[in-house]
Design goal:
Two copies of one chain form a homodimer. The first copy, chain A, is of the alpha/beta class and 556 residues long. Chain A has 19 helices and 19 strands. The first copy, chain A, has two domains: 257 residues, Nitrilase/N-carbamoyl-D-aminoacid amidohydrolase (4-Layer Sandwich), CATH 3.60.110; 198 residues, Rossmann fold. Chain A has a six-stranded mixed β-sheet with strand order 5-4-3-2-1-14. A six-stranded mixed β-sheet of chain A has the order 6-7-8-9-12-13. In chain A, helix 9 packs across helix 11. Chain A is elongated, with a radius of gyration of 26 Å. Chains A and B meet through helix 2, helix 6, helix 9, helix 11 and helix 17 of A and helix 2, helix 7, helix 10, helix 12 and helix 18 of B.
Amino acid sequence: MRIAIAQQNYHIGNFDTNFAKIKAGLEQASQQGADIVLFAELAVCGYPPRDFLEFEDFISRSLTVIEKVKLETKRLGIAAVIGAPTLNPVVEGKDLFNSAYFIADGEILHIAHKCLLPTYDIFDEYRYFEPASDFKVVHYKGKKIALTVCEDIWNIGNENPLYVTCPMDEMMDQQADFMLNLSASPFSYSHAQDRIDVVRANVERYKLPVLYCNTVGAQTEVIFDGGSLVMDAAGRVVDEMPYFEEVVRTYELAPLLNPAPLTGKADLDESNELPKEKMALIYDALICGIRDYFGKLGFKQAILGLSGGLDSALTLTLAAHALGAENVRAVLMPSEFSSDHSINDSLELVKNLGCMHDIISIQHVYEQFRSTLAPQFEGTAFNVTEENLQARSRGVILMALSNKFGYILLNTSNKSEAAVGYGTLYGDMCGGLSVIGDVYKSECFELCRYINRNGEIIPNNIITKPPSAELRPDQKDSDSLPDYDILDEVLYQYIELRKGPQEIIDAGFDSALVERVLKLVNRNEYKRYQTPPMLRVSDKAFGMGRRMPIVAKYLG
Amino acid sequence: MRIAIAQQNYHIGNFDTNFAKIKAGLEQASQQGADIVLFAELAVCGYPPRDFLEFEDFISRSLTVIEKVKLETKRLGIAAVIGAPTLNPVVEGKDLFNSAYFIADGEILHIAHKCLLPTYDIFDEYRYFEPASDFKVVHYKGKKIALTVCEDIWNIGNENPLYVTCPMDEMMDQQADFMLNLSASPFSYSHAQDRIDVVRANVERYKLPVLYCNTVGAQTEVIFDGGSLVMDAAGRVVDEMPYFEEVVRTYELAPLLNPAPLTGKADLDESNELPKEKMALIYDALICGIRDYFGKLGFKQAILGLSGGLDSALTLTLAAHALGAENVRAVLMPSEFSSDHSINDSLELVKNLGCMHDIISIQHVYEQFRSTLAPQFEGTAFNVTEENLQARSRGVILMALSNKFGYILLNTSNKSEAAVGYGTLYGDMCGGLSVIGDVYKSECFELCRYINRNGEIIPNNIITKPPSAELRPDQKDSDSLPDYDILDEVLYQYIELRKGPQEIIDAGFDSALVERVLKLVNRNEYKRYQTPPMLRVSDKAFGMGRRMPIVAKYLG
């Protein structure tokens, strides 16, 4: 028996495109001699479909794809294991199941429902789905196959299991020969090794090989990296599919069932094709995120404001790499507070990348706003209002170019700024997509160095000069904020690790600083509420995965 | 035995304020001779605390309030039934329970956990809480008391029950004398009668009286209306507490347990003190929403752009009623496309209300933007870009005034506009709070008429003239959009009822129109992602309660 894995990039609700991909996957696997083709979780509609799942019409179109897949399996003489929503026939409970369909010879042989429904971070599965309460292996061509969906295999070996049941335990006495897992498991820079570990924990506990299919590609802010796995019954990584790429590969089952004995620890080591260095992973994920955001929305070209600082330089470079330099337009918008090096450094970067650029001074617009507001502002001093006026003048210019020529405006804020609210709402916080909103400032420095690893693309001066918003004379970020190294450590403790103030102070940080930073984070929830989606690369990004009240007093 | 209900308005994470309220409630009830005081769900920390629940520090501060309540019950010789989170001692499953604490004489006599965890619309409870699996009545002063938390009583009598268990059924053989329910059940204009019906369904099924305590007040966009209920064992509404007000009242238990026989249908009728007319409810809810948004954030004053159209006139009037006219500043920002009546109608409204106003022309700023962009825009025609430039010039001016003087900018978009994306991101879509973002345009007309019911406040000309954005000569909303009456009906079918295109067409709407409207709704998800929180008055508002992918193709 030969089993194929189709690691594919679907588009939510784009049933025609998704079916075309699935059909091509079946054909390709058939040419490779596969008997069964494994697809991802909710492949027919794309993941996460969110509240589209509440529309009967959406479910019915999803099931129409299943009907078409049935015909293909008959035509090609191949079996498909594919994810789709199923209507719950029982009146009590949620209306749907998140299911794995086993289809062969034009018929649905079996439907296995997902039992463990992730409802944390970006996941809302219990919002839609009833958990499985019935667990049966599929019998096909003399083999017993356990079907599991994503999270179903993640509840073992944890110190703090999220669920009280374990679906594979429930199937244990049915003695499956192997397991097929359909996943839509998102990327984070610390997640790749977890996946291998959890698959291995299953292999060891249930004494069977696992073929694990993950989806690939970005759905708005959520990025799926693929990395589908084949692990033999000895726990050996037989294959790890590439990250961020679509691929269909077929595997002989026999050696997975009866593997050669392990010869040592080296034999267990993962064999993934891409390096797992954090910055390389983040870079690849962001490129995928930008490309799919544009591609799936039907846009080609990006615009952004290039300030001369690190964040916009990094964002521009990522955009040029993702979309092609010819599709990216950088706009330099100096004011009276801009330094010469900002212009020069920006022009050097634009030249290095080969992208379009404009220089549009905001001076007249800024002065016109001040003179228009002079009657109201009489007797008041220059303060953050005038700083915001500059940032907002730039936002209006960028949006005008975006509207006139059909660019998507890229937001250039980093995670540290977004955390403490160091940015102007409707100013530099504008944009359709935040590229580095989940990358702390200290990680942005590292990412620039990673990009420059084979030669200077981002001018070194941009990386080494002290960060400044240049909205008043001689301004430095460090006038308003702690040094980024310290700030980012405190933010990480609070945001990623969810430590309280006393725990962070106990970890060795100054108490006044901790109190100030946490207050800034909580008080600026209202700004983050209105930011664009931020490409998610960490375990805890702002946006759907971190849901905070705006009106609250906790640590605020 | 006498039981008090404390219907109170908490502030999320403001433990000191919440405890002070709870203490005052206990004292007031004690003066009224109460034996037991019933508080709301998660009263100690406020509802919904969202991801603050993931912080151990937040839970520990919540439990500190419980410790203080214990001391108060001892001091006052009174029992408290109050909502707080509890740590789950079992390692498997979610870390918390959503609990009802029964506290008397300085001790916790019983903790009952919530079983039915709403995970739909704005609710995310399964994100945090493990459902109860153990159901016991409390024995107190010779009575057996069933404690339930909010949703626990909502799973009976439905055609489509959301849950497979029913906690009161589990307690049935313990023969409780009465039930106490702790709720945080949000307002929607169609929800008040539901509440009476569901409490009555419980009274009838379990043959006992119910005392039901709801919280009151707004938490960002979610509005709680109170309306706490006392229903005797015959199903008679003995009391319905006022909507949108804090109140502590005490009831004699004996007549609830042994009610007079019903004399007829009239005896069953609800006796709530406020009218249930839809526009009256929406008006009261929006006033509550504005007041609590400002009050809980520590702001007093609002600013907004007054265009001469219906939406900004309505928003201004609501703000003036909620905050006092002296705390509201209206800014008229005419351009070359503004009509005379826009200024005159606006000035008349400002005079009727007695609020501050400015007239600030955007003409020079708008022209300066056009001349700044002239090199880039050479050879292009006036289009939506120039319309957006006007809206964004106004947004920048409003935000500058907001920043300089400490106003919160109110957004004036209605639900119809928000649905189809008829608005300028970073222009008229700016603001800290959207007041009427959950009120369809046709409902806005009704709401204006309701406000004018005792005399003209909003000038009649504003209500009767054809809606226009006035961003180009002789523009009318009807140039771009279907008539609001038809548009709103289609939107209601799609948004509130979640009907698919064919179902809406089958209901009698033109197919081209339906397709166009649904496409507009789905394609403008990216704009709604960046809008301010919208005060929720319907069963399906944009925001946390409606979660849609931005990058998707379904009906787009």
